[in-house]
Amino acid sequence: MSAASRELFAAEARSERPDLALLCLLLAAEADPELDERAMDWAQMELDRLAGMLPYGLRGAKAWAAAVTDLLGGRMGFHGTPKDYDRLESSLLHEVLRRRRGLPILLSVVWLEVARRAGAPVYGLGLPGHFTVGFGDPEEGVVVDPFAGGASLGAGPAELARGPRTPARTLDIVLRVLGNIRVWASARPEHSAVALWSLDLSLLLPSHPAALRYERAKLLVERGSFREGAAEMDAYAVVMDAVDPPAAVRIRAEAASARALLN
Fold first, then answer.
1. Which InterPro entries does the UniProt entry name for this protein (predicted)?
2. 166 occurs within a structural domain
């Protein structure tokens, strides 16, 4: 992704109503150099095309859930498999649209964007370790699992029954997508560059865990950028001074050790 694209990502993330599809496409551009403006337009038009295939006049959560599931999980064949967790493409929206396979959260993005374009009362629902889509009132509506082709979750699993069902915000979804990419890369040291750009984009979001700065600093040191990593550690130590002074001392010691590697 070029500097201009990152500026666009940051600006969109800070807009009054961030565009989920656009943000997912902009982050995908970090992984796929061929994902240019024309390819992004194709992805947006594909979401529009799918939305246009839904019937008119739908009313009620059950009717919307059934129609979207019939279209995406049925006729179009969108779903996930265990092997999708091993592919970076499973976290890239344009590839999920092309392959009709992906991680739960990216398949949910497809469900959300298609349903929203058609006027459905829809929202994302992040469960521990899984992501789903709800229709209708969050407390009473229908919840479906796009990874399973849109199968209804009914009143379960237990996470749903405990409630309350809090719709996921757009930026929370984007942060979770980037987190999945980082987890994928962390298991593959040869792809540390992927982990780095996922952290860079996470830090461009207006709200993110402060600990990501420390994670980025450690990754920079691991990649041999000792001076930059040490500077990041020092900056994070300043933040930790107010909440965990012993941790701040430890982080500054790590920064000094990183600088020593320059000699």
1. SirB1_N (IPR032698)
2. yes
Flag whether pLDDT at 160 surpasses 60.
Answer: no
Q: Is the pLDDT of residue 162 over 90?
A: no
- The pLDDT tens digits of the residues spanning 57-92 come to 889 999 999 999 999 999 999 999 999 999 999 999
CA distance 124 to 28: 20
Q: Are residues 18 and 118 in the same domain?
A: yes
DSSP 240: H
CB 137 within 8 A of CB 122: no
Residue 261 dihedral angles phi and psi, to the nearest 5°: -70, -10
d(CA 216, CA 212): 6
Can you state the percent helix, strand and coil of the chain, rounding each to 5? Answer: 65, 10, 30
Same domain? For 158 and 233 the reply is no
pLDDT digits (tens, 9 = 90+) for 248-258: 999 999 999 99
Judge whether 40 and 28 are in contact, CB under 8 Å.
Answer: no
Nearest-angstrom CA–CA distance, 27 and 204: 11
Q: How far is CA 131 from CA 7, 100, 109, 240, 253, in A?
A: 28, 17, 10, 32, 39
Which element (helix H / strand E) includes 123?
A: strand 122-127
> What is the extent of the structural domain holding 110?
3-170
Residue 176 CA to residue 216 CA, distance in Å, equals 16
